[in-house]
Amino acid sequence: MNKYVSVGKILNFHGIKGEAKVGFSKNRQDFFMSLNCVYIKENEGYKKLEISTCRPNKNFLLVKFKGIDSINDLLPYKGMLLFTDEETIRENLEEDEFLIDELVGMGVYDSENDENLGFVIGVSNNGATDLLTVKTNTKHICLIPFVKAIVPDVDISNKKITINNIEGLLE
Q1: Quick one: pLDDT at residue 45?
Q2: Domain boundary among 44, 74, 92
Q3: Mapping DSSP to helix (H, G, I), strand (E, B) and coil, where does residue 115 land?
Q4: Does 119 have pLDDT greater than 90?
Q5: Do the beta carbons of residue 55 and residue 62 sit within 8 Å?
Q6: Confidence (pLDDT) at 1
Q7: Stretch (H or E) spanning 14
Q8: CA distance 55 to 133
Q9: pLDDT at residue 133, as a whole number
Q10: Inside any domain, residue 130
């Protein structure tokens, strides 16, 4: 069974010929524009929408789907999330890029002594960088900048994130 990952959202219509104004994941315009189709969640499954055209417009994309030729055809989809299968996402990840699902639940270890410090409970972004939300063994919740200087190694297969535990980081 395919696993799907959200890559955008139909925000509104654009014009009268069924073109959609689509918001997309941060810094993923080129990726979205490379897609031939996306999926929407419908009832218990996913429905495929083939992309005819896709072009940038300010901070959005204008997307025309095959078979959607008017505002009335598009309105039922307004506000819906757009998905692609996880395999497509994985094929397009760059080195040192990960899916959030992969990181949540991973153990966090000190790079000096391999001591278990806690585990990842979430990932967020503060506008400047991604942040790992870590629950420490002392039950504190800490935000760790997800940058190479602090997080030198992520081992997906062993579910282990190694950090340079600088003073004050986990307080």
Answers
A1: 87
A2: 92
A3: coil
A4: yes
A5: yes
A6: 57
A7: strand 4-14
A8: 35
A9: 93
A10: yes
Residues 19 and 79 in one domain: yes
**Is 170 inside a domain boundary?**
no
**Residues 124/132, Cβ–Cβ less than 8 Å:** no
Mean pLDDT throughout 109-132?
Answer: 90
Distance, CA of 9 to CA of 82 (rounded, Å): 5
Cα 111 from Cα 108, distance rounded (Å): 9
Q: 134 lies in which domain range?
A: 100-163
- Angle (CA) 73-77-83 rounded to 5° is 130
Residue 168 lies in a domain: no
How far apart CA 56 and CA 47 sit, in angstroms, is 24
User: 88-110 pLDDT, tens per residue?
Assistant: 888 877 777 788 788 999 999 99
Residues contacting residue 112 through CB under 8 Å, at least 6 positions apart? 165
Contact residues for 68 (Cβ-Cβ < 8 A; gap 6+): 18, 20, 49, 74, 77
Same domain, 66 and 113: no
Statement to judge: residues 145 and 121 lie in one domain = yes
Q: Give yes or no for a contact between 81 and 133, defined as CB atoms under 8 angstroms apart.
A: no
* pTM of this structure: 0.69
The residue with tokens 């790079």 is 111
